[in-house]
Design goal:
mainly alpha; two-stranded antiparallel ribbon; globular
């Protein structure tokens, strides 16, 4: 009974159910709380035994077997499962490529991308490392209804690395050689924008190329009962576009705010006397920004997104549900 509730309810905890997330997904605030759970770094510290126990508990509840657990314990188990198991394939996602590992993995990468006056080699290395991680993250969290070949993965990887390095080095050379802009402030602003522009453009290309099959062949569309009714390329375009925009919004504050804030921090006399103190401050700043920007960016769109049948291909326009009523809305998993 997937929609049955658990025993031992608490007034402060909603009754457990598998039919919907703990928090209201129709509001940004509810989705933000939900993705705070999905991206909670503590879930990567869960042992294999704890993960297996959480998976078994949720499976037993879904199958209607008796479970001895409170609502809070069931919600905690679901949080662990949601953060660790792919919703389409049911496979456990490798720890480095879970969304809950995004923050610790990206703090160091982001710090490397923001190294001031970096050499060409250093710029290429950090852009390459960033896109290598992104490609693995995209692949691990893709909508799995349309798998990609190894050749498609290789093309996506090469394209993303080429774009990110090309944009980063191109803007760098422009700032060094341009005679069109003489204002030091404007040139400084362009330097500050360079990591964000490179990461964002490459990230968008990465998502669209890596998940190109979802656009050309479509993704699974389900009805309100969860039954797959077909594959829709139009839904694939919506899903991939939403994820690409989320990636840009994730990078925006993390790559734009630290240089602005650190420029002021480095003027503090104590920091001038001990420049190395700026390093942990910068890392703490990046961490705190990522902690909120990542779930906020993902929460821009519901994980299980609704789409009017009129926005899909004609073959979905005249479907009926189990009771024979016309279906006006269908659903898809946008991926992460």
């Amino acid at each position: 009974r997937p929609d049955s509730t658990a025993p031992m309810s608490s007034p402060d905890v909603p009754p457990f159910t598998l039919s919907k997330p703990r928090y209201d997904q129709s509001t940004f605030g509810g989705r933000f709380k939900h993705f705070l759970d999905v991206t909670d770094v503590r879930t990567i510290l869960v042992s294999k035994e704890e993960l297996d126990a959480a998976i078994a508990l949720i499976r037993d509840f879904k199958e209607g077997k008796p479970v001895i657990a409170t609502d809070e314990e069931l919600w905690k188990a679901k949080k662990i499962v949601d953060a660790s198991v792919h919703p389409d394939t049911g496979e456990v996602i490798p720890i480095p490529f879970r969304m809950s590992a995004f923050l610790p993995m990206n703090v160091g990468i982001c710090a490397g991308l923001l190294i001031p006056n970096a050499s060409v080699g250093t710029t290429i290395f950090w852009q390459w490392l960033n896109q290598s991680y992104n490609i693995a993250l995209n692949h691990a969290n893709r909508n799995a209804s349309n798998p990609m070949s190894n050749q498609q993965v290789a093309v996506s990887y090469a394209s993303a690395v080429t774009i990110s390095c090309g944009v980063a080095l191109g803007l760098r050379r422009f700032v060094e050689r341009t005679t069109l802009i003489r204002s030091p402030q404007v040139l400084s602003a362009i330097r500050m924008l360079t990591p964000f522009a490179a990461v964002s453009l490459a990230g968008v290309a990465n998502v669209f190329i890596m998940r190109g099959n979802e656009i050309t062949e479509g993704i699974n569309i389900t009805n309100a009962d969860g039954d797959v009714v077909g594959q829709s390329p139009k839904a694939g375009v919506r899903a991939v576009s939403q994820v690409a925009l989320s990636r840009v919004l994730t990078s925006l504050p993390a790559l734009m705010l630290p240089p602005i804030i650190m420029a002021q921090v480095e003027r503090i006399p104590a920091i001038k006397r001990r420049p190395l103190l700026a390093i942990p401050i910068n890392l703490a700043l990046i961490t705190s920004i990522f902690y909120t920007s990542l779930p906020a960016a993902i929460a821009m769109f519901p994980q299980k997104s609704a789409v009017p049948v009129t926005s899909l291909e004609p073959r979905f326009h005249n479907l009926r549900d189990r009771a024979g009523r016309p279906i006006n809305t269908l659903y898809y998993n946008k991926g992460l």
